[in-house]
Amino acid sequence: MNWPNRLTICRIVLVPVFILSVIYCKLHIAFFVFLLAAATDALDGYFARAYNQKTKLGAILDPIADKLLVGSAFICFSLVDTLPGHIKIPVYVPIIVISRDVLILIGAATIYLLAGEIKVHPTAVGKITTFFQMTTVIALLLGFVHSNWLWNTTVILTILSGLDYIRVGSKQVNDKL
Length: 177
Hints:
CATH architecture: Up-down Bundle
Oligomer: single chain
CATH class: Mainly Alpha
Shape: globular
Structural class: mainly alpha
């Protein structure tokens, strides 16, 4: 197993640590864990590209790790009642983020069943959305005063990236059929 995949697996392992830190309101620990997980996201991509260590496993695990980390953060920030008010977010935020991710997974499975293969490539708007999602989590943990602007921008980008993935997926199916 190469280093990029190890870093991705490390990010997945950090998800329950992050969740427990938020549930028990250890927000300084949650912040550190989230920052460490976000760093592994940047590093695994860098190592995979710089040292030509891209793998099929990494192409699948990396977005799953991102979705687990960000999705669990938004769920916790929406549902954990003991959190301070500056961290609480409306329930529509995790619903939109997770709905997009579920649609992407259903779309990927559909493409695979129809076309026999799937090319997993993050789009530019998808990468920007992931950046904003992670930035929103960090801003909330730091108590950023205007977090509502950030999470609403993240929601809009999440919707746009979902539509973009539908466009890309439709093209893959049309090209194969």
